[in-house]
Amino acid sequence: VQLVESGGGLVQAGGSLRLSCAASGIIFSLYTMGWYRQAPGNERELVAAITVGGSTNYGDSVKGRFQISRDNAKNTVYLQMNSLKPEDTAVYYCNAHSWYNYWGQGTQVTVSS
Fold this sequence. Notes:
Layout: E1 2-6, E2 9-12, E3 17-24, E4 32-38, E5 45-50, E6 56-58, E7 66-71, E8 76-81, E9 90-97, E10 101-103, E11 107-112
Parallel strand pairs: 2-11
Antiparallel strand pairs: 1-3, 3-8, 4-5, 4-9, 5-6, 7-8, 9-10, 9-11
């Protein structure tokens, strides 16, 4: 199983980034897909999740700014991040959850003030 994140980088506050996570080795359409993040000294926290049926859930700090989506034909989940703030700086991890739980290696997002 592989979850490969891409799209991270350095952006100024107020800017946007789009993260992608390409999954292989799983039946993608049967997994709830999520994005988590972890900043130095902090616990890993949920950013957004999307269920098999397309229902979404967001962390309070990103509601209205981030949008999660999935393309089952491409085995890929996306995170569109708008109006980025310095406090969004973290390593962002892709997660696949069903009977098993899988994690990607993470991608760094840095938002400068």
